[in-house]
Design goal:
This protein is an alpha+beta fold and about 375 residues long. It is built from 13 helices and 4 strands. Strand 3 and strand 4 form a beta hairpin. Helix 1 (about 1-15) runs antiparallel to helix 3.
Length: about 375
């Protein structure tokens, strides 16, 4: 990790010095100073070669580090989902939306370190470039201030876009489900026999449009604000060049420095903005979902501090157990109290909807009762670890 960080910062420094070498090269040519020209040319060549070499080495080191992080994170997420004894997170729509986003974007979590390294590198380049601009005139430091709106929009834009995407997650899941039904072999027989291919295509298109329309609207609106922020920076850049060339009547070498440093400043701001957008959007949202999954898994095991009886002596007892499925108000079980003796053969019978399957799910710890308690030989079932 330390090697990857150091190499990423070393590769940023030569690139930031290119504007300085261009200024010295221009000064040497205008003043006919051959040693300065040769020195600037050598410095320019060394900076270009060092930037290329260090970026290649840094990329390879970071790739190996990222692969290790990827394996660790994907194993961690899979282990968390497998450790949850209940099935509520597989059935509740709000949980499914979060898990679908996390599964589809778990790869962004391993980019965290690379993005942080890149952000530090862009900030280092910005610092060197601003220092070069300040060497011409201290007022040129304000050019960096005009980049603040672009930075702000870059952190705000991913947040609103990810919010729109999460709101459309249910429609997108439906669109993927319909696409799978219409295009895969197992359900193909039923689709052809029923003749519902065209209907599936139409329903899939409507579901996709329901999911994409709000995301598209948010993207267009945020893109407009982002464009205005960059237009402000572009106007400030042109104004800085006019100020140095006409207002200060600075030598051509200073104007060349402003041209080179200012153009690179826009590239560095763009790189910083892109990394901040990734950190604020994909990575931070993915991290929140991972933290939620960790908290959810921990909450289900926090109270599981007792061992299951080695031998069932008395039986299982339900004490006024009530249960309603998530998102519904009707009780599938209402204040049920019964005893299941140890060693007895129990048959659960009843009409459709009487709660037979629900009772088995509660006994299997697939759900927790909404109220009441289940005891296994006087040991609360909720305090026995699943599995």
């Amino acid at each position: 990790m330390l090697a990857a960080f150091v190499l990423s910062q070393l590769s940023a420094l030569p690139d930031a010095l290119i504007a300085l070498w261009l200024m010295l090269l221009g000064r040497g040519l205008l003043e006919n100073r051959r040693p300065l020209v040769f020195g600037a040319a050598i410095g320019l060549a060394v900076s270009a070669a060092a930037t290329w070499l260090l970026s290649i080495v840094s990329t390879r080191v970071q790739r190996r580090f990222r692969d290790k992080v990827t394996i660790a994170l994907e194993s961690h997420v899979a282990g968390l989902q497998a450790s949850i004894g209940t099935i509520a997170h597989h059935e509740r729509p709000e949980f499914l939306d979060r898990l679908a986003m996390l599964r589809n974007q778990v790869f962004v979590l391993d980019h965290m370190y690379m993005s942080l390294f890149s952000t530090c590198g862009w900030i280092l380049r910005l610092g060197v470039t601003v220092a070069l601009l300040a060497s011409v005139h201290i007022g040129l430091v304000l050019l960096a201030a005009f980049a603040i709106p672009a930075v702000l929009t870059s952190t705000w834009r991913p947040a609103v876009e990810r919010g729109a995407q999460e709101g459309a997650a249910q429609a997108n899941r439906l669109a993927r489900h319909l696409f799978t039904i219409a295009t895969t072999a197992p359900p193909g027989k039923e689709v052809r026999v029923a003749g519902i291919g065209d209907r599936l295509v139409e329903q899939r298109r409507r579901a996709w449009e329901r999911g994409f329309a709000p995301v598209s609207a948010v993207r267009w609106a945020s893109a407009l604000w982002h464009t205005l922020a960059w237009a402000l920076f572009g106007a400030a850049y042109v104004g800085a060049i006019v100020f140095v060339s006409s207002g200060l009547r600075a030598p051509a070498a200073a104007v060349l420095l402003v041209l080179a440093a200012g153009s690179r400043l826009s590239a560095y701001v763009g790189g910083t903005v892109g990394e901040l957008g990734f950190l604020r959007g994909f990575w931070m949202d993915g991290s929140r979902r991972l933290a939620w999954l960790e908290d959810y898994a921990a909450s289900l095991t926090a109270t599981a501090d007792l061992h299951a009886p080695a031998v069932l002596e008395h039986g299982i007892r339900l004490d006024r157990v009530s249960f309603a499925y998530p998102g519904t108000a009707r009780l599938a079980l209402d204040a049920v109290s019964l005893a299941l003796p140890a060693g007895a053969v129990i048959a659960i019978v009843g009409e459709n909807g009487a709660g037979k399957t629900t009772l088995v799910k509660l006994l299997a710890m697939m759900y927790e009762p909404s109220s009441g308690a289940i005891f296994v030989d006087d040991t609360p079932l909720a305090r026995i670890p699943a599995g």
